[in-house]
Fold these 3 entries.
Entry 1:
Amino acid sequence: MAEIRVFPLSCAVQSYSWGKLGPESEVAKLLASSDPLVQIQPDRRYAELWMGAHPRGDAIIRDNRIPQKTLGRWIADNPACLGAKVKDAFQGRLPFLFKVLSVNTALSIQAHPNKELAAKLHAQFPEHYPDANHKPEMAIALTPFEGLCGFRPVEEIVSFLQSVPELRALIGEVAAEQLERSGSDDPRGVSAALRVCFTRLMKSEKKFFVDQLNMLVKRISQEAAEGKDTSGSNGDLLLRLHSQYPGDIGCFTIYFLNLVRLEPGEAMFLGANEPHAYLHGDCVECMACSDNTVRAGLTPKFIDVLTLCEMLNYTPAPSSSKIFPAAQSQLDPSVYLYDPPVPDFAIMRIEIPPSIKLYLVSAMDSASILLVIQGTAMGTSTAAASEMTLRRGSVLFISANESISLHLSSPDGMLLFRACCLL
C-alpha cells in the first residue's frame, strides 16, 4: 500500500474566558458541522481551535491505518513531509500553528517578543515564557472583527490628552506637554515622548488609576445618558471594556492604540513588539509555533508591565496601515495569498466559484493545513488511501509536494484557508 501523506485531522479546542459561548462560536459551529457526533455545550466557551502539532494541542490523525495517533508524532517520524527547505530551516518541526478564534470579550493588552528577547525571557522566567521562539501572527476576519493594534498617530493621542482630563492626570503634565511639543520632523523624539507617556500610564499606582478610571466612567456614562456625543473620549469602547474588566488599567490603552475594524477576508499582521488586543469577532489566525506573550492589562493572567513597556515598537501610524493586503495569485485566480514579512508561515484564502466543479489544490514544497469554511466536496489524492469527504469544519494535513483534487458538490462554491511555509 502506498504511504499515506494526506489525511484528515481532529483538532484541539481551547476554552478561555474571553471565548464565545456554544452555538454563537464559529469554533463550535465548525466543530459541529465537521463531526455530527460532537455535542456542543451551550455554557462552554469555545475560544480557539488549534490546527497543528503544538504539544499543548497536538491534532489527532483521523485515519486508523496510520499507526501514529497525533500529527506531532507523525511529523517526527516522517520529517520529509515538511518539504526539504522547511525541514532544514525549522529542525524537522512544523513551523506554524493555525487557529480559528471566536472572541466575545477583549483579550489582554499584549505583545510578542522577537527571537532575541524570547530566548532571554525563557531563560529567566520559563514558568511565564515557555519557549525561546518569536511569535509573529496574522489574523484574517471570518466575521466583522475588531482589535486594538499599534500606536495611533500622535495627533489622535494628543487630542485625547486634551479631551480626557483623567488620562492627562495619570500621565502627568510634563510627559503630556513633551508629547504635544514633539514634532513630526523628529520621529525618534516622537517615539521617545510616546514611550514616556505610555510607560507612565501603565506604571500608575493602582489606587490612583482606579479612582481616575471610575471618575471617567461615571462622566462618560452621564454624558451618554444625556444623549451627548462621547466619541471625543472614545466613550462607547471605554464603557464596553470597563464592563468586561472593571478597574483595569488596560481600559486607558484605547487612547493610545488604534481601533482596527476588519471585514471578512481582511487581515492584520502583528510583528514582534507590536502592542495589540483582539476585542470581538471570529478569525482564522496563523502564527509561529510559540506560546510567548507579554501581557499588561485586560487580563487576570500574569502581567509584566516593565518588559512590555521596554519592548514595544513606539512608531505611530494610522489604523488603515494595519490592514495587511492579500495578493491574488497570477497562476490561480481563486487563490489570495497573505504573505507576511516572516519566514514561518503564509496563508492562502481559496475562493472556488460555483461554476467550478473540479478544483486542484496544488502541490507546494511545504507541508500545509487546509481548513474548509464553507462548501462540500469529495477529495482524492494519490497520497490518500481513500476518498475524503470535505465539509464545513473539515481539516486536512497535506504533505509537501502532494496535491488534492476536489469534486465539488455544493451549489455555492467553496471557501478554504490553507496555512503553509513559503521559503
Note: The domain at 327-420 is CATH 2.60.120.10 (Jelly Rolls).
Entry 2:
Amino acid sequence: AIYSHLLCAILQKLSANYSEYRKVPGDGSCFYRSFIYSYLEQLVKVSHEEELRLLGALETMWEKFQRLRLPGSYSDLRDAFVGFILECMEQKQKLSVSAYQEWLFQESQNEQKFANMLLYLRLVTAIEICTEVEQFKAFIADLDQGKPDATKYCLEEVLPVEEDAQQVNLTALTNVLQVPLRVVNIDVSPIEEPNIHIIYESPDSSVPTVTLLYRPGHYDIIYEKS
C-alpha cells in the first residue's frame, strides 16, 4: 500500500512536466534502444550539422578499438550505424516531422537493422570504459578493488545483449557521443518526488537532449511538455 501511494504521488508529479512516454521492450537493451530512438526522433527538428557532429565524435573509436582485446567486427557495426544515421539525414530532408517519426518507428521494427545499431552502441561504450579505466574504475566494484581488468568487465557486463546498462555505461556512452542525457528516476523511495539525474550536459544547446524514464531494471522514453 505504501509503494502504491508513493508511486501514485510520483506519477502525479511527473504529469505536471511530462506529457507522455513511449514503452520500450523490456530486454537487456532497453537503455540503448530508448536512448538512440529518442535521439533519432529529434533529429528532424535540428539541422543536418548535428548528424555530422555525432559522426565526428565517433572518429577516434576505430583507432582505440584496435588497441584493445575486444571481440566483434568494429567496421561492420560502424558501417551499419553510420548508414542508418545517413538514412535519417536523407529522410528528414524530404519528410514532414510526423512522416519522419512514422518512418523511424517502422524502421525500428526491423529488428536486425536496429540490433546492429544497439550492438555498436554497446561496443562504443566498452571501448570508452576500457580506454578511460581511471575515470570509470570507481564505479565498477572489481576495478575499484584493485583488479584493473576493464576488458573482462566489458566482456561480461557491457557487450552481452542480455546485460542491462549500469550507470557507468550511460556515462561512458554519452561522454563519447556528447549527447545530453537526463534520467527521470521513479525508483520508489520514501520521497514523493521523481529524481532527475543529469548524466551528461552539453554546452551546445542545439544538440537534442534525451530524457528517459527509469524504474528498477528498465528504461522507457519520456516526453516533456512543450
Note: The chain has a mean pLDDT of 88.
Entry 3:
Amino acid sequence: MTTSKTNPREPHAQPYYITDPTPLPSHIPSVPEIGATSAPLLSASYFIGARCAPYNEDFMLCRSQSRSGETDCLKEGRRVTRCAISVLEDINKSCQAEFRKHWGCLENENHDLSRCRLDEAPLNACVSKFLNLTKVIPNSDGTPINDYETPSFFQKKVKAKYEQ
C-alpha cells in the first residue's frame, strides 16, 4: 500500500497494526483502552459476559438498528468497555494469582481452553466466591461449570496427564 505524504488523513500501515489519524468528533468523549492481550480477555470472557450482558445487549441492539454510521453507538460501546475494564480490575484485585495462572496457561497452550481446565477451576471458584460471578456455558441448562460432579472424558484425560 502506498501512502501519500500530502494527505494526513490517509491510514498509515505499520508492521502490526493500522492507525487512522482522523480525530473523533469533539462531542464524543474518549474512553480508555482495556489494555489486555487476548489470553487475559479469553480467561475473563465468561465473567465479562456475565456482568456486562445488559450493556452488551444495548450495544448490539443499537448496532442492529443503526443506519447512519459507526458513531451512532459509541456511547453504548464505551459502557461495554468500561464494564469490561471493571471486571478485569476486580478479578486482578481478588483473584490475581489464579487469574495469572489461567491466562498464562492459555498463552502457552495456544488459547486452547480444554488444555487449561486444571487452572480454570480455581479461578472459577475464586471469582464465584469474591465477585459472585459464575461461568455458565451459553445455551446450556444454566448450571455453572464448576457444579458438574462428573467431568467429561476429556477433562479426566487431561487431569490424569497432569497428575502423573
Note: The radius of gyration is 20 Å.
